[in-house]
């Protein structure tokens, strides 16, 4: 806990309570505060006997040698950047718990069979550098260079291979707390597709244009968003809109142009694609003014039709984690929680995307969840109790060590 609270002095966000540590976080990727935290991470891991490597995207790998040299490390990893109005546990817990693992191994002089390490991944939140900007790399490269974290190693799994990746994270949802569960054994991550949707109508005066002669892009957008939620329920999926831009943005002008985000998620790829197909078909009808499931049944306010354009920003297929890693997490949780462990663990699928989604495509991977108060995250009041942080950290270290032994057994030596 000391590391979490000490590092959260860099990039401290809004206060949400009266306690000493009851402040949120605003440590955006590659900011000055992020640099300070990165410098701490590098200095601390080097003092614990690790070799530190930084790649061309600023991802930072701290690796402690094992008996067998020249093999990819088994790593714990997460991120130190936060949302603009985030909390002090999302990502930060995973990195600090990994560092605590290194500290225990160092102080107890425990020698692993293979190298083990901790990774601080760059810009996981995507708050400062959205995916479209990360792809170009221009602004990120300038900032990486400015803060001294533009590494020479290629940001590629062949340049810096991993033997396995375990990630401790707060659940960011209410299920563990509601079920009085202490550890979530994560089997994978649901699929998602992010879209930007543009609705084109026509600007007009609010006082001189009656409803029948309006082509109101914002009214049409409101109906589209409502319908996305209703339809997602039927598919046992989720739909969310977090960004809306309306132009011209004047009190007395009906907006003729609106752009909004649509985030749809489901546990299965085929379900998600079916939902998207259905949404596109229904959206076409709604913006033309045709009735769809109770929408547009009020012709007196419908007005003239609009047009719509979809842009796919970020698709992510459903992810299934490695069975061996999942079993390491389950066994470690059982060892911690005792004979009644089945009453306190939850086998689950993550609703949110994580760094582990991407590592799972290149190496054996799994995740460990711990409860957060009321399921709240991406919020200054995000909170994980000290006991839950400690439980997660213990399961993380035990999982890494179990996998290390599993690698040794599988090597036949």
Helical stretch tally:
12
Poorly predicted sequence stretches spanning 5 or more consecutive residues: 132-138
Q: Quote the distance from N terminus to C terminus.
A: 38 Å
Largest sheet entry: 9 strands, mixed
What percent of residues are in strands? 15-25%
Order of helices and strands: HEEHEEEHEHHEHEEEHEEEEHHEEHEHEH
Description:
By secondary structure, the protein is an alpha+beta fold. Helix content is 35%, strand content 23%. The chain has helices at 2-7, 32-47, 92-107, 131-136, 138-147, 175-178, 217-234, 269-287, 299-302, 323-337, 355-359, 386-411, and strands at 12-15, 23-25, 51-54, 60-64, 74-78, 116-120, 164-170, 183-189, 191-200, 204-205, 238-240, 244-247, 253-254, 257-266, 307-316, 319-320, 345-350, 365-370. Strands 3, 4, 5, 6, 7, 8, 16, 17 and 18 form a 9-stranded mixed beta sheet that branches. Strands 9, 11, 12, 14 and 15 form a 5-stranded antiparallel beta sheet that branches. Strands 1-2 form a two-stranded antiparallel ribbon. Strand 3 and strand 4 (60-64) form a beta hairpin. Helix 3 packs across helix 12, helix 7 (217-234) packs antiparallel against helix 8 (269-287) and helix 10 (323-337) packs across helix 12 (386-411). The longest helix is centred in the C-terminal third of the chain and has 26 residues, at 386-411. It is elongated and about 80 Å long. It starts with a helix and ends with a helix. Mean pLDDT is 94; it is low at 132-138.
What layout of secondary structure does this protein have?
Layout: H1 2-7, E1 12-15, E2 23-25, H2 32-47, E3 51-54, E4 60-64, E5 74-78, H3 92-107, E6 116-120, H4 131-136, H5 138-147, E7 164-170, H6 175-178, E8 183-189, E9 191-200, E10 204-205, H7 217-234, E11 238-240, E12 244-247, E13 253-254, E14 257-266, H8 269-287, H9 299-302, E15 307-316, E16 319-320, H10 323-337, E17 345-350, H11 355-359, E18 365-370, H12 386-411
Parallel strand pairs: 5-6, 5-7, 7-18, 8-17
Antiparallel strand pairs: 1-2, 3-4, 4-6, 8-16, 8-18, 9-14, 9-15, 10-13, 11-14, 12-14
């Amino acid at each position: 806990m000391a590391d979490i609270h000490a590092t959260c002095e860099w990039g401290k966000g809004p206060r949400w309570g009266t306690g000493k540590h009851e402040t949120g976080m605003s440590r955006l990727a590659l900011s000055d505060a992020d640099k300070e935290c990165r410098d701490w991470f590098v200095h601390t891991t080097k003092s614990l006997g690790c070799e530190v490597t930084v790649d061309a995207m600023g991802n930072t790998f701290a690796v402690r040698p094992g008996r067998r040299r020249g093999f990819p490390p088994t790593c714990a990893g997460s991120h130190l950047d936060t949302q603009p109005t985030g909390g002090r546990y999302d990502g930060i817990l995973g990195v600090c718990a990994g560092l605590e693992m290194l500290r225990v191994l160092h102080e107890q002089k425990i020698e692993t069979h293979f190298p083990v390490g901790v990774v601080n991944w760059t810009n996981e939140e995507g708050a400062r550098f959205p995916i479209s900007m990360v792809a170009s790399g221009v602004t990120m490269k300038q900032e990486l260079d400015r803060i001294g974290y533009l590494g020479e190693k290629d940001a590629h799994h062949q340049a810096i291979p991993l033997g396995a990746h375990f990630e401790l994270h707060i659940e960011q949802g209410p299920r563990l707390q509601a079920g009085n569960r202490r550890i979530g054994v994560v089997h994978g991550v649901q699929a998602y597709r992010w879209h930007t949707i543009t609705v084109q109508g026509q600007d007009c005066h609010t006082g001189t244009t009656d409803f029948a002669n309006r082509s109101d892009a914002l009214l049409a957008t409101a109906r589209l968003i409502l319908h996305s939620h209703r339809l997602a329920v039927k598919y046992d999926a989720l739909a969310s809109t977090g960004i809306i831009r309306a132009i011209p943005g004047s009190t007395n002008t009906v907006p003729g142009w609106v752009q909004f985000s649509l985030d749809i998620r489901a546990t299965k790829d085929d379900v998600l694609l079916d939902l998207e197909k259905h949404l596109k078909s229904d959206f076409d009808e709604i913006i033309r003014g045709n009735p769809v499931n109770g929408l547009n049944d009020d012709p007196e306010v419908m007005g003239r039709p609009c047009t719509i354009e979809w842009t796919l920003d970020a698709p992510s297929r459903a992810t299934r984690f490695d069975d061996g890693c999942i079993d390491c997490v389950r066994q470690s949780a059982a060892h911690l929680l005792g004979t009644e462990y089945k009453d306190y663990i939850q086998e689950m699928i993550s609703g949110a995307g994580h760094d582990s989604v991407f590592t799972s495509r290149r190496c054996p991977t799994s995740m460990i969840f711990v409860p957060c108060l009321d399921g709240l995250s991406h919020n200054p009041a995000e909170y994980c109790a000290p006991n839950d942080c400690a439980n997660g950290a213990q399961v993380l270290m035990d999982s890494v060590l179990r996998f290390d032994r599993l690698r040794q057994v599988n090597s036949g030596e």
